Amino acid sequence: MAETALFINRTDLVRNTIIAGSVDTDKFIMFIKIAQVMHLQNYMGSALYNEISNKILASQSANPVPVDADTTELLNEYLQPMLIHFSMVDYLPFSSVELRNGGLYKHTAENATSPSKDEVDFLVQNIEILQNFILDDLLIIWHLMQLVNSLNTGKIETTKCTLI
User: Fold this and answer.
1) Nearest Cα to 82, choosing from 128, 15, 114, 21?
2) In angstroms, rounded to a whole number, what is the distance separating the alpha carbons of residues 87 and 131?
3) What percent of the chain has pLDDT over 70?
4) Cα(23)–Cα(87) distance, rounded to whole angstroms?
5) Residue 62: phi, psi to the nearest 5?
6) Do 78 and 3 touch, CB atoms closer than 8 A?
7) Whole-angstrom distance, CA of residue 96 vs CA of residue 4
8) Consecutive H or E run containing 106
9) Most confident of 36-45, 140-149, 154-163
10) Taking CA 50 as the corner, what is the angle to CA 15 and CA 157, rounded to the nearest 5 degrees?
11) DSSP helix, strand, coil percent of the chain (3-state; round to 5)
C-alpha cells in the first residue's frame, strides 16, 4: 500500500477545532485520511492531489526537498483549513464510541454528559458551514487562476463553476 502524506497533523486539528489535547491521536487520525481522500481529492482532482502529496512526501524523505512557495500557500490558506473542518465533520459522529474485543462501547466521563444526536448533528451542520465558506473561496481562486492562465496563453477555456 502506498504511503499517504497527510496534509494536516494532530496539532492542526487540536488547535483549530473543539478536540481537546488529551484526546488520543489514534481516535481521530484515520478521519483525517478519510476526509483527505473523500473530500479534498474529490475537489482537487487526482493529478493536483497526487502532486501535492508527492511534494509533502519528498519534503519528509531522507534527502528532503522543500515544498515550493505556491504549494505551501495553497496548503496553508485553503487546503488545510478545509481539511480540518472536513475531518471534524467526519469524526464527530464517531467521537464517543469505540470498538474493542468485547464489542462497541459508548464513552462517558464521570462529570460530563454525552450530547444527544440532535446536538451532534447541530455541531456537524455548523462545521459544514465553515468548510463550505473556505471551499467557496478556494473554488473562486481556482477559477480566477484558470481565467488568468487562459488570458496569458490566449486560449480561453470555459468551465462550469458550481459553488456549494
Assistant:
1) 128
2) 10
3) 84
4) 15
5) -60, -35
6) no
7) 26
8) strand 103-106
9) 36-45
10) 105
11) 65, 5, 30
Could you tell me if 53 and 4 are in contact, meaning their C-beta atoms sit under 8 angstroms apart? yes
Q: What does the alpha-carbon distance between residue 51 and residue 48 come to, in Å, rounded to a whole number?
A: 5
- Residue closest to 5 by CA, chosen among 44, 28, 38, 37: 37
What distance in Å separates the CA atoms of residue 34 and residue 37, rounded to the nearest whole number? 5
Q: What is the largest CA-CA distance in the chain?
A: 66
Q: Report which residue type is found at 64.
A: P
In tens, the pLDDT along 43-72 reads 888 888 999 999 999 999 999 999 998 889
Q: Cell match 512557495: residue?
A: 69
DSSP symbol at 160 = -
Neighbouring C-alpha atoms within 13 Å toward the C-beta of 101 = 0
